[in-house]
Specification:
This protein has a two-stranded parallel sheet with strand order 1-4. The chain is mainly α and 364 residues long. Helices cover 60% and strands 3% of the residues. It is built from 14 helices and six strands. The protein is globular. The longest helix is centred in the first third of the chain and has 28 residues. It has one domain. Strand 2 and strand 3 form a beta hairpin. Zinc ion (ZN) binds next to helix 3 and helix 6.
């Protein structure tokens, strides 16, 4: 496999100034960027919510509508774990204590993913080469979807804005049963190699998978009819997939976010890393306290991409600082005021990329 080494031109004054302002903010409010009390409380609440949904579904539901509601509750609880707990912890943004982060990132393994693969795929590749076609795995769902103009067009892509929901729903099953194993065997994601897991890491990953299969399928099959278990597993998984994928896609796969293709002969991106992060990302629904709480601040993806090691609880406070600095440096700070607007922009980009002649602007 030929590895493409892509670089950014320098560090940039924008990033230096932004870091200075953000650390001045934390000093002025006398708060730590990590170890927020609200985050610990939220963790307990989300874990209790998930465990309660599962226990009630397994041992208390007596009819089909109760089972359906509890399966959806379980899916949303698992989504809460993914957005809030494992995501912050895997980035090292949950706590200053490495052990706390290392322990809580395993929450992803409990819900069927691999925190080891996620680290390399998300933290390293996606957070470095955001929206760079050929490198960022989040814009590579070929041949099912065409998410960048340099990807091969197929006739069925014309309908991708319609059938995409089916694919999004399949994401968890893909993780749980196929993609993590494939990535571990191949040792690369997005064309970028990652180190083989140590024996300990591999044991944790495989134990996590086995534990997930046990609680999600084996135990229910021992206690309930096969058809009901498979149907509720499919519903939970599908709901989780739609929620997870939509949130991540609304940050980068929207009309306002730049999408880049690397020139293989001169693999240097046009702007410095921090500016690249802002230009390839968009926020949504910043005024919604419910979404901000549930999505682990992922509706403030610009702040997340600039400061992934800061606990998401702080993103709303950082947002005006980032927006103001962007204004001063002439960098567009994109934010959809509602979830609906972001969704429409996502569908519009998908519809356009579904046409063979699609062009996506890059303002950088
Ligand atoms: Zn992230």
């Amino acid at each position: 496999m030929q590895v493409l080494r892509v670089s950014f031109p320098g560090c940039g004054d924008f990033h230096r100034e932004l870091k200075r302002r953000v650390s001045a903010h934390f000093e002025s409010v006398q708060s730590s960027p990590r170890d927020a009390l609200g985050m610990y409380l939220k963790t307990v609440l989300i874990l209790v919510w998930t465990l309660a949904s599962y226990s009630l579904l397994m041992f208390a539901a007596v009819n089909w509508w109760q089972a359906i509601l509890l399966a959806i509750g379980l899916a949303l609880g698992m989504g809460g774990i993914a957005f809030n707990i494992q995501h912050d912890a895997n980035h090292g943004g949950y706590s200053r204590n490495r052990r706390v982060n290392q322990c809580l990132r395993l929450c992803l393994d409990l819900i069927g993913g691999s925190s080891y693969v996620w680290y390399w795929k998300h933290n390293i590749v996606h957070h470095t080469y955001t929206n760079v076609s050929g490198l960022d795995v989040d814009v590579d769902i070929e041949p099912f979807l065409r998410l960048a103009p340099d990807q091969k067009h197929k006739w069925y892509h014309r309908g991708q804005h319609v059938y995409i929901w089916f694919l999004y729903g399949l994401l968890p099953v893909n993780w749980q049963f196929w993609a993590d194993y494939r990535d571990l065997m191949n040792g690369h994601v997005g064309g970028q190699p990652f180190p083989k897991p140590s024996k300990g890491e591999l044991a944790i990953t495989l134990t996590g998978k086995a534990f997930f299969y046990f609680w999600s399928l084996v135990l229910p099959l021992l206690l309930h009819p096969t058809l009901a278990v498979l149907g509720l597993y499919a519903l939970t998984s599908f709901t989780l997939g739609i929620v997870l994928t939509t949130v991540f896609q609304l940050a980068h796969c929207v009309e306002e976010a730049d999408l880049l293709t690397v020139d293989r002969d001169a693999p240097v991106l046009p702007v410095a890393w921090a500016e690249h992060q802002v230009r390839t990302t968009a926020n949504f629904a910043p005024g919604s306290r419910i979404l901000t709480w549930y999505l682990g601040g992922l509706n403030y993806q610009i702040e997340h991409h600039l400061f992934p090691k800061v606990c998401h609880i702080h993103y709303p406070a950082l947002s005006p600082i980032v927006a103001q600095t962007c204004r001063e440096y002439g960098i567009p700070y994109q934010s959809h005021s509602t979830l609906w607007q972001a969704l429409m922009s996502h569908l519009s980009r998908l519809r356009r990329l579904g046409q063979p002649e699609a062009i996506v602007s890059t303002s950088s």
